[in-house]
């Protein structure tokens, strides 16, 4: 089978998919961490690969940026390719002073002003949650690996560039420590399709400190998060 956005055949995608926003981060993960990666999708340059990590079959596919984009790719993976679990491996901007570049965060929930959930299913909640069993596996794995994994609520925003601080202030009032643009839609799709999802993010920049990773660093410097996600797949 194929979809308008994915040319993979059914058996070409593993049950667990790591999903960065950046297609070149997907390529980097496949080429540097998986054995025998095979590219299953190049449509729109949203690259997807399947290979093996320590003999476990794993796929990695980009989501593109924003909720409409991850909404499409995650829905197709769950619904048409029978994927069980998607772990987003993203970047995020730190709102709070405790967060610094390259810190690794686990989303314990995400808040959004987005209408994605309401429009997709009629469900109006502005907070979406990851799968508890996947979060627990990520936390257990981080402990074994001695990774200082920070757990926070994320802001999933529809907007990257703002004219005012209003959206950031509202997100902070709603308990968000950092901002990214996809986990709300991913968690919602997993929920309505009875599948599993989690989101790990590496801090790429700060709204408080003068810290800002380059595009290349956002592509290839997230080793701790990638290894954490891959080691977690061995436990689920
Ligand atoms: O680095 P990725 O995973 O794309 O994540 C973040 O980076 C993009 C914005 O630069 C958005 O997709 C945001 O969620
Ligand atoms: O500031 C940032 C950094 C990464 N992703 C975002 O959405 N915002």
Topology:
Blueprint (H helix, E strand, L loop, with lengths): L15 E4 L3 H11 L1 E7 L6 E6 L2 E6 L5 H14 L4 E10 L9 E8 L4 H6 L5 E2 L3 H13 L4 E8 L9 H8 L2 E5 L2 H10 L3 E11 L8 H6 L2 H11 L3
Parallel strand pairs: 1-4, 1-5, 5-10, 6-8, 8-9
Antiparallel strand pairs: 2-3, 3-4, 5-9, 6-7, 6-10
The protein binds 1-O-phosphono-alpha-D-ribofuranose (R1P) and uracil.
The site of uracil (URA) has 10 residues, from strand 5, strand 9 and strand 10.
EC number: 2.4.2.3
Catalytic activity: uridine + phosphate = alpha-D-ribose 1-phosphate + uracil
GO molecular function: purine-nucleoside phosphorylase activity; uridine phosphorylase activity
Short description:
Its EC number is 2.4.2.3. About 35% of the residues lie in helices and about 30% in strands. The protein is built from eight helices and ten strands.
Task: Describe this entry's structure for a reader.
The chain has one domain: Rossmann fold. The protein has a five-stranded mixed β-barrel, surrounded by five helices. It has helices spanning 23-33, 67-80, 116-121, 132-144, 166-173, 183-192, 215-220, 223-233; strands at 16-19, 35-41, 48-53, 56-61, 85-94, 104-111, 127-128, 149-156, 176-180, 196-206. Helix 2 packs parallel to helix 6 (183-192) and helix 4 (132-144) packs across helix 8. It has 236 residues and is of the alpha/beta class. The radius of gyration is 16 Å and the shape is globular. 1-O-phosphono-alpha-D-ribofuranose binds at residues 20-22, 65, 90-91, 160, 180-182, 218.
Biggest sheet: strand arrangement: 5-9-8-6-10
The CATH architecture assignment turns out to be 3-Layer(aba) Sandwich
From the N-terminal CA to the C-terminal CA, the straight-line distance is 27 Å
Pairing-aware structural class of the strands and helices?
alpha/beta
CATH topology: Rossmann fold
Number of strands: 10
Main beta sheet, described?
5 strands, mixed, barrel
Low-confidence stretches: none
Bound chemical compounds? 1-O-phosphono-alpha-D-ribofuranose, uracil
Number of structural units classed as domains: 1
Helical residue percent band: 25-40%
Query: What is the CATH superfamily classification?
Result: Nucleoside phosphorylase domain
């Amino acid at each position: 089978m194929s979809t308008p956005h994915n040319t993979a055949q059914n058996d070409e995608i593993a049950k667990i998919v790591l999903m960065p926003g950046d297609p070149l981060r997907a390529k980097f993960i496949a080429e540097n961490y998986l054995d025998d990666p095979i590219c299953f999708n190049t449509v729109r340059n949203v690259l997807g690969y399947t290979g093996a990590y320590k003999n476990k079959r794993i796929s990695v596919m980009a989501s593109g940026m924003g909720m409409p984009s991850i909404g499409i790719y995650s829905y197709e993976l769950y619904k048409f390719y029978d994927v069980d679990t998607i772990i987003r491996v993203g970047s995020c901007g730190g709102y709070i002073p405790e967060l610094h570049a390259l810190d690794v965060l686990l989303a314990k929930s995400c808040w959004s002003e987005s209408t994605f959930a309401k429009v997709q299913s009629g469900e109006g909640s502005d907070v979406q949650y990851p799968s508890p069993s996947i979060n627990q596996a990520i936390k257990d794995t981080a402990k074994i690996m001695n990774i200082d994994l920070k757990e926070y609520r994320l802001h999933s925003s529809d907007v990257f560039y703002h004219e005012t601080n209003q959206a950031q202030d509202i997100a902070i009032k709603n308990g968000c420590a950092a901002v990214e643009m996809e986990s709300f839609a991913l968690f919602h799709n997993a929920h309505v399709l009875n599948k599993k999802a989690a989101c790990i993010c590496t801090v790429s920049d700060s709204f408080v400190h003068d810290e800002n990773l380059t595009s290349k660093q956002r592509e290839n410097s997230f080793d701790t998060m990638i290894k954490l996600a891959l080691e977690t797949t061995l436990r689920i």
